[in-house]
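Sorry to interrupt, but I need a hand with the structure work. I would like you to pick a protein and set down its sequence and fold. Please put the record directly below this note.
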Amino acid sequence: MTTVKVRAEARELIRTIAQKEDHETLTLDVRSLKNLVELLRDYAIITHASDAQSEVAVAAEKLIDYVDLNDEPDIEESAGGTFKTTYLASVFGVSVTAINNWIDEGRFVGYHRARNKHARIPHITPFRHRDGRVEPLGHIINRYRHQENESFADDDEKAMLIEEIKSLKQKYGGKDFEEAFNFEAPTSDQESDLSRWRFYRERLKEL
């Protein structure tokens, strides 16, 4: 991983690049170029990001966010830049059991719990959202831990409910709820789907 000094130097270079037009030239020394390459490597590994169609300016801003995040002194971390499951549970608004289940489900991408040891998850670990998006764990922590009116647990549940409704909608040929269950004698399977879909809709209204 890159050092704080390397990230700081690369950050300034990235900002300079982002401010220049395509036709402009830029002179830099070999060390600065190496720093940038090392940062790009770290960013790609951590986020699993690969978007060839992204504009340079957008990519540069994302890199700046990444650098700023990893130099952010306000993130409450345990020893070694890692998070305990109890801390993650308090920030995400879920139980420790839920965090452990997420570990087993692979939502903390690439993280494997050491045998007979308490989980300590690095802040740079990619976290997979319900909708498939992946972003560094530390970024999520930084976003939610001071948000009194926002809850990761609620947002995560919303994403799950939306996916469940989407799946049911596809099962019934893309029809909406009212149209999908417009029949007189539903089967037991259809009654089960009706009950689940109705619950998902009502739960979404509550969140």
Q: What stands out?
A: Residues 152-206 form one domain. The chain has three domains: 4-70, 82-144, 152-206.
